[in-house]
Amino acid sequence: MVRISIPTLPLTPPLPPSALTKLPLKEAAAYLNTFLVKGKGKTVILSGAGVSVDSGIRAYRGKEGHYSNPNYKPILYHELVEETPRGEMFRKRYWARSFLGYPPVRDARPNPTHVYVAALQLLGLAPNLITQNVDNLHPKARSLLLESIPRNGGRRPHTVPPIVELHGTLAKVHCLHAKHEQPRDEYQAQLAKMNPVWEEMALEAERTGVRPRTNPDGDVELSGVDFSSFTVPPCTICEGEGRKERVVKPNVVFFGETLNPKVKDESLDLIANASQLLVLGTSLATYSAYRLVKQAVEEEKPVLMITTGPTRADKLDKVDKMDKRAGDVLRAYLDELVKTNTGPEVEAIRRCLDMGIVTPPPEVEGPRAEG
């Protein structure tokens, strides 16, 4: 049996602050400007969970690089898809917990850093974005900016390449039999209809604001709970075609699951065709993300990381790192940019810079559900 563990960082002594880390914010922004200018519009951005923390979504790892919740036991891919009574219980546990954990992710709003990243895309400075996040906040931020650009003859003048969601998105689900896909909100409504007791729990959490600890993948912690009575809806399309396929999963990559081959190839191609790579808010603990940085280094392309805490790439040669909050550096850079540039995109960005919502995860959350 292959042992699957949650990716984490090796225990290594902290490195001394780099020269880039020591730069005052204004000079750090100037350095970023120089980096982006050299990229000539072919810079690719790679973002991670740290970007979404200010939207109230907890990061996987803490300030020291360790997994922030060592007692967390997620459902592994082979457990979710196991076609046995044991597998059915794993699916009941996953969907019951996810039923409660999805609404906070669904309702989260882009924070300032999401808006700043969308600005870099919109201006063509770094049009291509690869994100490890499954929370749908980068697309929301990009839509916010695009909708702020005045229409010219009924059409907006700017297009932005699709965002590559490396680990998928919680906004959709699909069945494993025929790959039938549907919006998560539709499946959430089915879960609510078939599990009225759990729906009342969800409504009570919304009314009181007291929720169990929610992880970045939309799963929550529940202890002492009997999941056997939870009903998991089958794929409605398969059911309508006379089949009884019951294995439905969100469009996210589970621990122990391989990346979607198309998404993997697309991400590798973006790095191959990029001039350089800008990494924001990630420790690169998962190999799928680290591989992209490693590829850029091997292809002798400049890599700039702006993130806090240790990362898997700290000992890679030719990776420049600012141990700073990415949003702070991006905002200082954009503040200078909008002062000296004009145009509909710049005006839209100027209007949107303060539109991000800051709602960091609570330091102390409500008690774990018991029963």
TrEMBL record:
Spell out the molecular function terms from Gene Ontology. Answer: histone deacetylase activity, NAD-dependent; NAD+ binding
Keyword NAD annotated: yes
Which keywords does this Swiss-Prot/TrEMBL entry list?
Answer: Mitochondrion, NAD, Transferase, Transit peptide
Q: Where in the cell is it found?
A: Mitochondrion
The terms describing its cellular component in GO are: mitochondrion
Where's the Deacetylase sirtuin-type domain? Answer: 18-340
Q: Do you know which Gene3D superfamilies this protein is assigned to? A: SIR2/SIRT2 'Small Domain (3.30.1600.10), TPP-binding domain (3.40.50.1220)
For the keyword 4Fe-4S, the answer is no
InterPro entries under this entry? DHS-like_NAD/FAD-binding_dom, NAD-dep_sirtuin_deacylases, Sirtuin, Sirtuin_cat_small_dom_sf, Ssirtuin_cat_dom
Q: Which family does it belong to?
A: Belongs to the sirtuin family. Class I subfamily.
- Record's protein name: DHS-like NAD/FAD-binding domain-containing protein
Q: What organism, scientifically named, is this protein from?
A: Dioszegia hungarica
